[in-house]
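Reviewer 2 asked us to include a model.

Predict the structure of this chain.
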Amino acid sequence: MLLRVLLSLCLSAMAAAATPAGAEDVDIELVFLADSSGSIDSAETAFQRQGHAEALNHPDVLRAIRQGPLQRIAVTYVEWGDARHQDVVVPWMLIDGPESAKAFAAALAAAPKRAFGYNAIGSALARGRELIQGNSFRGARLVMDLSGDSANSWDGISIREARDTAVAAGIVINGLPILCREPDCGGRPVGYDLERAFEEQIIGGPGAFVVTAKDRESFELAVRRKLILEIAGLTPSGKTRLGFAPGPAEPVSLR
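Predicted model (structure tokens):
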């Protein structure tokens, strides 16, 4: 236990030392880690990108940003596949209002599909940590969001090692398991409880939680709810799992 505490303090000190002296303060540094492995085709890549872009541009998410102490966040979007491919699709951008949110969405829409190969979730988490520790921002909170339709990791470093290293560095890992990519698919994409696998194997850090998307229509809503919780520094009350069924998107307000 003492060794773990000492390791955590050491990694946190190293992360602080790596932050440039002129780093810009933000309320949150947020890495989107989107599944783009071999099982994800161009249409599925597009729907993940669209869901993230629409959520970031939603009035409730922009309101959450405005209600932060600094009223700005830093975001980057990464598509991951095997251990050799964790591709930065949109580099770090400062989001402080509608114009910057639209610019992020435009850059995301224009980029070609990245990454391929078998899942390497541990390597994706390690890359996200490196991006947080090596950027020019200084966030009051550090968060990685990993979305995917599987909790399998076939190569690269282990999920446990990558997760524990990130958490020790002060980073919270939240999960967005995609249960069903098509509205008419009629079932889960894997033969096990994907939400539970995310809860037990992937997420970590104080207040970490899972938000599930049950199909294409509910994906944007799930991302939006997750963003509002993260930006506001909130956690689900009394549970780690939030599931959203398809249906009309109900407005979310922090007022």
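The chain has a mean pLDDT of 82. The first helix runs from residue 2 to 18. We have added this to the supplementary material.
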